[in-house]
Amino acid sequence: MAKRLEIDFSQNQYSSYEDMVAKILIRIFQNPEMPFMSYQMSNDFIGALLGNINKESNFNPFAYNPDDAGTGSSSSGLFQHHKERETALIDFMVKGGFSADRLQNLFLGLEQPTEQEVSDAMSLQLEFALVHDGKDSEI
To answer: Which residues neighbour 130 within 8 Å (Cβ) at sequence distance 6 or greater?
Structure first.
């Protein structure tokens, strides 16, 4: 998996990447206007979701695995979406405001994300996984 992109924390309100991710996720889960917040999510569900994200991507919304499990296909994002789901995720993120070229550079680790891009990517990827990922969202 691609190395997690590091951000210079000397110039902002966070002490580390993990601190930034935790605070962004708290903001997302506290935002009643997020489409998935209409569902009742137990603390157990949120804990399981965070455990899955940690295992899949180490909380890196721009995690990229070019040869996931030796299949020759890549996986991307917080949940390491694969094949058609990866394509659908990228399309959803472009519709959500990212440019396709910028996303490619972020996933390939060629550019550093801004704090706002990390926040936007997490919000979009959570929304995609919980609302727009077809039958997988229903599960």
So the answer is: 35, 36, 39, 137
Separation of alpha carbons 95 and 8, rounded Å: 28
Query: For residue 79, what are the CA distances in angstroms to 8, 24, 30, 54, 125?
Result: 25, 17, 21, 9, 8
Question: For the segment 68-107, what is each residue's pLDDT rounded down to a tens digit?
Answer: 777 888 899 999 998 888 999 999 999 999 999 999 999 9
| Burial group, residue 76, by CB count within 10 angstroms (0-12, 13-18, 19+) | buried
Element (H, E) at 84: helix 83-95
Q: Is 73 left (phi over 0), alpha (psi -120 to 50) or beta?
A: beta
Low-confidence residues of the chain: pLDDT under 70: 1-9, 17, 34-41, 133-139
